[in-house]
């Protein structure tokens, strides 16, 4: 008879009790569990140094950083075409089939997002058009540290292609075990999607190389700067994206992953626990948060965590994440109170496991993505839902959106007035120009009608 290992207590999964409180919006946001181990301010100076080094020393800096952070000797980070071909040829058939299904579903959703141009005739002869124009070039970042996120290749590339971007470059950290190149599954996914400009560059240095470009030096071909940088990553990647914003566009500051589950006493504790673990295994700093009015459910989930964490492969990583200040249970008065807490937390991933889950989900205002009911777990969205898993974190979902076709499009306005249409509104333009003490504006209209 095999001895059974007794479940360990999971008291480290802390509880924040907000029942009976009447907090302002600011106080509610301040009460949310957040990581204290790393912040933008704590790493900003180091990231600035990396960006400055790449801008100043180009490929020499990239080589030094690859050696320092990845243990890789690197002359040029570009992945040879034959390595991409070989990676796809060697890819396990079942993994290829899964990637192809993920691509197909993501492409269906992305293509449906593309907006139509709008033409409005304000008056006879006065036509306004809003044209949607793709950016020329994008740099896509795919993490490759604790997890090999080949799925992020799909999530970055597919909406860019659906938007009509013509020049797409991809970067992922180099690995000593793979000849200084990114993980073979990441290379295979890039080849499957027809992306041939792939670089073995990790972290903040990849963001810097994309934002500012790297000049060629004779023997090493240049990396051309991009217009938009996208992709998830750790706090260094997210901070680099914040620092280059304005030089290039970014999707969002997608840092360490997080999940919140709004659940009542109709939820199944084993499902809630499994979903909390699924995101905790990403990173020791990942956040897993249960929001519930049910003390009974909270206790049952804690018991399930004690059992399920023991069986998971990355137990140590999961335990660290679940015990961190960024994770825990938030007790609320009722589902109505829970919705307010969800909006204050603004989760990257928010699951709704309550009675009448679709109606509750429809009332959520702040979340990167909302997963409704027992059969829409976050892991579905990570791979094969057709939605995009590159989403805003750390509360930025209150004002930022996840990656989509819109990330790679610009709305360009076109104004086309005839002489009669301009004449009709000319006196209004002149009067407003005089009111603002900008007479030259009015003169630019008056001169057309001598």
Structure notes:
This protein has 450 residues and is an alpha/beta fold. Helix content is 43%, strand content 17%. It has 16 helices and 14 strands. The chain has helices at 25-30, 40-70, 81-89, 93-113, 150-163, 184-192, 203-212, 235-244, 269-280, 295-311, 315-323, 335-345, 357-361, 378-383, 419-435, 439-446; strands at 15-17, 118-123, 126-134, 137-141, 167-172, 197-200, 228-230, 249-250, 258-263, 287-292, 328-331, 347-353, 367-372, 409-417. The strands form three sheets. It has a six-stranded parallel beta sheet, with helices on both faces. Strands 6-5-4-7-8 form a five-stranded parallel beta sheet, sandwiched between helices. A three-stranded antiparallel beta sheet has the order 2-3-14. Helix 9 packs across helix 10 (295-311). The protein is globular, with a radius of gyration of 25 Å. It starts with 14 loop residues before the first strand and ends with a helix. The relative contact order is 0.15.
Topology:
Elements: E1 15-17, H1 25-30, H2 40-70, H3 81-89, H4 93-113, E2 118-123, E3 126-134, E4 137-141, H5 150-163, E5 167-172, H6 184-192, E6 197-200, H7 203-212, E7 228-230, H8 235-244, E8 249-250, E9 258-263, H9 269-280, E10 287-292, H10 295-311, H11 315-323, E11 328-331, H12 335-345, E12 347-353, H13 357-361, E13 367-372, H14 378-383, E14 409-417, H15 419-435, H16 439-446
Parallel strand pairs: 1-11, 4-5, 4-7, 5-6, 7-8, 9-10, 9-12, 10-11, 12-13
Antiparallel strand pairs: 2-3, 3-14
Short overview:
The chain is 43% helix and 17% strand.
Supply database-style keywords.
450 residues; alpha/beta; 16 helices; 43% helix; 17% strand; globular; disordered N terminus
């Amino acid at each position: 008879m095999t001895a059974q290992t007794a479940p360990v207590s999971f008291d480290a999964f802390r509880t924040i009790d907000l029942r009976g409180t009447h907090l302002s919006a600011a106080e509610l946001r301040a009460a949310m569990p957040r990581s204290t181990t790393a912040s933008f301010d704590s790493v900003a100076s180091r990231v600035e140094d990396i960006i400055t080094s790449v801008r100043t020393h180009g490929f020499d800096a990239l080589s030094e950083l690859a050696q320092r952070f990845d243990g890789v000797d690197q002359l040029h980070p570009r992945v040879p075409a034959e390595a991409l071909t070989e990676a796809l040829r060697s890819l396990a058939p079942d993994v290829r089939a899964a990637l192809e299904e993920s691509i197909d579903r993501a492409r269906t959703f992305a293509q449906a997002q593309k907006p139509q141009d709008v033409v409005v005739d304000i008056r006879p002869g006065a036509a306004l058009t809003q044209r949607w124009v793709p950016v020329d070039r994008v740099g896509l970042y795919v993490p490759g540290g604790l997890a090999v996120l080949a799925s992020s290749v799909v999530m970055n590339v597919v909406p860019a292609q659906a938007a009509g971007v013509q020049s797409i470059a991809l970067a992922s950290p180099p690995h000593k075990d793979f000849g200084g190149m990114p993980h073979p599954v990441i290379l295979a996914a890039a080849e499957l999607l027809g992306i041939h400009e792939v670089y073995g560059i990790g972290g903040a240095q990849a963001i810097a190389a994309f934002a500012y470009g790297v000049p060629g030096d004779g023997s090493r071909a240049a990396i051309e700067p991009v217009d938009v940088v996208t992709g998830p990553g750790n706090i260094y990647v997210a901070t680099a994206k914040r620092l280059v914003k304005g030089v290039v566009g970014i999707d969002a500051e997608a840092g360490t992953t997080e999940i919140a589950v709004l659940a009542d006493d109709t939820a199944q504790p084993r499902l809630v626990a499994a979903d909390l673990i699924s995101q905790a295994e990403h990173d020791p700093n990942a956040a897993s948060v249960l929001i519930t009015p049910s003390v009974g459910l909270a206790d049952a989930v804690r018991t399930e965590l004690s059992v399920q964490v023991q069986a998971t492969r990355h137990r140590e990583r999961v335990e660290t994440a679940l015990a961190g200040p960024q994770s825990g249970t938030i007790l609320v008065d009722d589902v109505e109170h829970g919705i307010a807490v969800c909006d204050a937390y603004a989760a990257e991933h928010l699951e709704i496991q309550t009675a009448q889950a679709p109606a509750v989900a429809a009332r959520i205002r702040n979340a990167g993505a909302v997963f409704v009911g027992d059969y829409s777990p976050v892991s579905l969205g990570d791979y094969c839902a057709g939605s995009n898993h590159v989403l805003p974190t750390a509360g930025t979902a209150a004002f930022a959106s996840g990656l989509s076709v819109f990330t790679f499009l610009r709305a360009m306005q076109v104004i086309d007035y005839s002489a009669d249409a301009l004449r009709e509104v000319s006196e209004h333009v002149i009067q407003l120009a005089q009111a603002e003490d900008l007479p030259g504006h009015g003169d630019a209209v008056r001169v057309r009608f001598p």
